[in-house]
Amino acid sequence: MDIQKALRAVVATGKVYMGAAQAEKAIKGGKAKLVIVANNSPEKTGIVSAANGKNVPVHEFSGMGTELGPACGKPFSVSVLTVLDAGESDILQLAR
């Protein structure tokens, strides 16, 4: 799977949250289907712990937040991306 293509597709056609605070709310609320965390995210430990507690899959993005943002088609840094609905993307295959 091409992660860059899948990220752009999920952002364009699905429903996602960007940021650690929204990720925690989605995890606690049972809405998160997948959490993607940038390699250098300062919130990584807390997000991973919360996700593991609710059996939400976590994928560690191999790059930094400054790379995850542009990979999603955004002109800013993204430390955490939470997938609520995959849309036309095959991004949920990362959860396996």
Kindly report the average pLDDT value: 95
Mass-distribution shape: globular
Assign a percent range to the helix content: 25-40%
**Number of separate helices:** 4
Q: What structural class do helix, strand and pairing data support?
A: alpha+beta
Q: What's the CATH architecture name?
A: 2-Layer Sandwich
- CATH secondary-structure class: Alpha Beta
Q: In whole angstroms, how far apart are the ends?
A: 12 Å
Strand content: 15-25%
> What is the gyration radius calculated from CA atoms?
12 Å
* Strands, total number: 4
Give descriptors for this structure:
single chain; 96 residues; alpha+beta; 60s Ribosomal Protein L30, Chain: A; 4-stranded mixed beta sheet; 4 helices
If you had to describe this structure to a student in words, what would you say it looks like?
With 96 residues, the chain is an alpha+beta fold. The chain has a single domain, classed as 2-Layer Sandwich (60s Ribosomal Protein L30, Chain: A), CATH 3.30.1330. Helix content is 39%, strand content 20%. It contains four helices and four strands; from the N terminus they run αβαβαβαβ. Strands 1-4-2-3 form a four-stranded mixed sheet, sandwiched between helices. α3 links the parallel β2 and β3. The longest helix has 11 residues. It is globular.
Explain the layout of strands and helices.
Elements: H1 3-13, E1 15-18, H2 20-28, E2 34-38, H3 44-53, E3 58-61, H4 65-71, E4 80-85
Parallel strand pairs: 2-3
Antiparallel strand pairs: 1-4, 2-4
Short overview:
With 96 residues, this protein is an alpha+beta fold. The chain has four helices and four strands; from the N terminus they run H-E-H-E-H-E-H-E. It has one domain: 60s Ribosomal Protein L30, Chain: A (2-Layer Sandwich), CATH 3.30.1330.
